[in-house]
Amino acid sequence: MTQLFGYNGKIAYIDLSNQKIDVKDLDPKIAEKYIGGVGLSAKLTYDLLTDKDYEILKSDPFAGINPLIFATGPLTGTATPSSSRYSVTGISPLTRIWGESTSGGFFPVILRRCGYDALVITGKAKEPLYLSVNDGDISFKDAENIWGKNTRETIELIKKKLGDDKIHLACIGQAGENLVKYAAIINDEGRAAGRCGLGALMGKKKLKALVVKGKKTIEYYSKDELISKGKDSLRNIHNAFAVNFFSHYGTLIYSDMGMVLGDIPANYFTNTEFVAENLTGRALKEQYPVLKYACAGCTIGCGRTTIIEINGEEVKVDGPEYETTASFGPMCGILDFKPIIKAHHICNLEGVDVISGGVSISFLIYLVENKIALDEIKKKYRILTWRK
Ligand code: SF4
Predict the structure, then answer these.
(1) Which atom number of ligand 1 is nearest to the Cα of residue 246?
(2) Most exposed of 44, 132, 227, 381 (fewest Cβ within 10 Å)?
(3) Of 211, 214, 85, whose CA–CA distance to 154 is shortest?
(4) Residue 319 Cβ contacting ligand 1 at under 6 Å
(5) Which residue range is the domain that position 286 belongs to?
(6) To the nearest whole percent, how much of the chain has pLDDT over 90?
(7) CATH of the domain at 144
(8) How far is CA 372 from CA 42, 357, 382, 383, in A?
(9) Predicted confidence (pLDDT) per residue in 9-65, tens digit
(10) For residue 224, is it within any domain?
(11) Is residue 158 domain-shared with residue 46, that is, in the same domain?
């Protein structure tokens, strides 16, 4: 067999219905062709599902055959800068076609060190559970007492239960449990795999969280060359003009650029001109104490934590990111940071995709302001009625 460098070389197939685990070798040809992350997951999904399965999933994306796949790539957690990223994929409960989402933080690096290149999760658990992957050992753990908790509570409770403050996990909040079709998966408290409603798929499987721990090292073809290429990338990153802006202002820097380009829609896509000088990265720093953070191995550090008072208490809130600012801000006709930051916090706690969340609310505002009944829209636009 060809030696596989840069990979764990193992895929774990986890059947929640029967609590069975089947570990298979990663085919080197598949690794070479599809690389890792989303590419590998797409191939694994394609091989797993028959045409009949796809037909079933078109009418019921929550069917147990829908594979929820967590995967990393060969560069995840290496000397390559900003490479702490994982993907999560499945047939989207929202669109009923292929769904993929990615997230950063520290969770991806540890997921990679667990000993698998991908975790393929099928079936549905009878009772809420969470999965623990610890240096190759996979176990099913009772999640009865954390079902119903928000993402921060879930993270704290699992850490306490395991008596380990250092573990990393990805979990869902009440949105995923209640099958909100744009529910997100939250890791490291504020990082989100938000798109395509894969948090709802996790909720339907009654999978509250994925807890990872591991120290597995990967064998590389040439570690020296990998480090040297990593250094080159780092030089290129720091020579790039735009990177400095991301470093100083986080993703909010795009609010400024987007406004100039007319790329930030407002008032439910009916307007692109608005005064948003209060919604820039610089404005955020002027209005609130803002801390900076980075994903593992990243020197850019676009992450932001804002300190804000909520109900008389000082709370550390992740973000707000550009996406939340755009969707809960101008799209909803709001040009003030405070409600946007609060909305971002609520979305992270409940596990809601901030983009779909903000846009849905802006749509509701549009209907109310224009006195349009939802039934009228349904009749007029087939797009809202083609699904049940
Ligand atoms: S901190 Fe920002 S730039 Fe750095 S890896 Fe994370 S998401 Fe990417």
Answers:
(1) 3
(2) 381
(3) 211
(4) no
(5) 240-369
(6) 78
(7) 3.60.9.10
(8) 40, 20, 16, 17
(9) 999 999 999 999 999 999 999 999 999 999 999 999 999 999 999 999 999 999 999
(10) no
(11) yes
- Cα–Cα distance list, 101 to 15, 57, 191 (Å): 22, 19, 12
Mean pLDDT of the chain: 92
* CA 303 / ligand 1 centre spacing (Å): 7
Alpha carbon distance 183, 176 (integer Å) = 5
Q: Measured between alpha carbons, how far is 276 from 255 in angstroms, rounded to an integer?
A: 8
Does this model's pTM top 0.90? My answer is yes
Angstrom distance (rounded) from CA 376 to CA 388: 17
Nearest to 185 by CA among 300, 107, 115: 107
Phi, psi of 261, deg, nearest 5:
-85, -5
Cβ distance 71 to 41 under 8 Å?
yes
Domain count, the chain: 2
In tens, the pLDDT along 342-366 reads 999 999 999 999 999 999 999 999 9
Q: Does residue 319 fall inside a structural domain?
A: yes
- Expressed in angstroms and rounded, the spacing between residue 250 Cα and the centre of ligand 1 is 9
Ligand 1 pocket, 77 CB below 6 A? Answer: no
Among 197, 213, 229, the domain boundary falls at 213
Q: Which two tokens stand for residue 214?
A: 């591991």
Q: How far is the CA of 294 from the centre of ligand 1 (A)?
A: 6
Name the 3-class secondary structure at 316: strand
Are 322 and 252 in contact by the 8 Å Cβ rule? The answer is: yes
> Six-digit token pair at 208?
């509250």
DSSP 26: P
Q: Atom 8 (ligand 1): residue with closest C-alpha?
A: 82
Look-up of token digits 């529910």 = 183
Under 8 Å CB-to-CB from 164, ≥6 apart: which residues? 213
- Per the CB < 8 A criterion, the answer to whether 111 and 73 are in contact is no
